[in-house]
Amino acid sequence: MVYLTRKIEFSASHLYHNPAFSAEENRRVFGKCNNPNGHGHNYVLEVTVGGEPDPLTGMVLDLKELKEILEREIMTRMDHRFLNYEVPELAGQIPTCENVAALIWNLLAPTITKGRLTRVRLWESPDLYVDCYGDEAS
Amino acid sequence: MRLQLTRRYAFAASHRLHSSHLDEAENQRVYGKCNNPYGHGHNYVVEVTLTGKVEPATGMIAHLDDLDRYVAREIIEPFDHTYLNKDVAAFRDRVPTTENLCLEIFERLKRFPGARLVRIRLEETGRNSFECASDQNGDGHG
Known about the structure:
The structure holds 2 protein chains of 2 kinds.
Chain A: E1 2-14, H1 23-30, E2 39-51, H2 63-78, E3 81-82, H3 83-86, H4 97-108, E4 116-125, E5 128-133
Parallel strand pairs in A: 1-3
Antiparallel strand pairs in A: 1-2, 2-4, 4-5
Chain B: E1 2-15, H1 24-31, E2 40-51, H2 64-79, E3 82-83, H3 84-87, H4 98-109, E4 116-123, E5 129-133
Parallel strand pairs in B: 1-3
Antiparallel strand pairs in B: 1-2, 2-4, 4-5
């Protein structure tokens, strides 16, 4: 098995707010992230695909194809967007790094058909990232 | 789907690699420059990886403020700007290699409430790092 990883960057804004909480509770739980005007990050996304190289091409998955999938599924959806208001799949969720990474997994897992999506690593900042794996892999 | 959250922290400390089980010549041979009697320092970077259920009300595996406070109390305050051999009781009779420091950090963080510690990764410099991961029983020696 060989694993290939492609890295992309996108910039987006978000805010943390749970409508079931009072204003005071939202401020206490989410702190600065509760600013109603939102705030932004430069997200770095590492997508790892595992598989056996095709004997004809020597590739698990053509990087050009992966680049196109990431452009279509992630960049057009999330780059320079306000995640709370412009990404319908996140409606009703707090757009934390955990939830955004899980959404990215759910968008990419069915789309990558050569090789298998092994890991999604989403960096929200240089000191925080979330890894997402399938149920069976480690 | 399984999610793991990783937070990175930094601290600076000095240490000397010297084993009481070895004589002077052996210590010098095994540890080389790291056996310098005055010690030497590093900028350590610790990656703390947790797993657990994402709480729907907050969207979080663990609240970062809680984790930051816990790590500050257990790791940063006791280790930052110290000489590990003398200032940290755990290393008075244990060589403070980065392997042992990694295990010590795992021990100190494994009881973090609300999420399960799965891995500690400790960078001693930009060129070398050490990891310990939980086994089924949740300790760092697996």
